[in-house]
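Ticket #4471: structure output looks truncated?

Reporter: J.K.
Steps to reproduce: submitted the chain below (160 residues) through the standard prediction queue, then opened the result file.
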Amino acid sequence: MQFSVAVFSLVLLFSFQIDAQNTYQKNYDDSGYLVSEGWTHNNKKIKYWTFYYQNGRIKKEGHFKQGKPIKYWYFYAKNGNKKSEGHFINGKKNNWWLFYDSMERVDHKCQLKDNQKNGYCLMYKNDELVSARKYKAGKQIKEWTSFKSFRQENNLSDLK
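Returned output as attached by the reporter:
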């Protein structure tokens, strides 16, 4: 019994030492406005972070790993409306990203790879699909101006 208490105490002490290296940090600008807040480990951003405009509204929010953005992120305009959202992999924009108009309707959605358009971009107006484009390494290689022509040339299962 005494041995198990000693082992438990040692494990508990070790876990506190690991957590002690993680620090919750709030950053302010010269005027005293909160600019960002989140977790650090060895001076690198980790876990969830939130960044702010001077008006106090959220500018962007998402996860970090070893100082690089990862997972799903949200970006906002100064008035609080959504601007864009999407996936980061190892610090770069990848997979599907959604971009919004000033009324927070989807303006377009694009497949990205390493911060560049790479795949399909679907263009919307008033929530209706109006055109589609295909990109390779950031360069447009094809455009369709009707859903019918797009559907005839493409397998819609590619859009998942």
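Triage note (M.O.): checked the attachment and the full token line is present. The helical segments are 2-20, 147-153.
Status: closed, working as intended.
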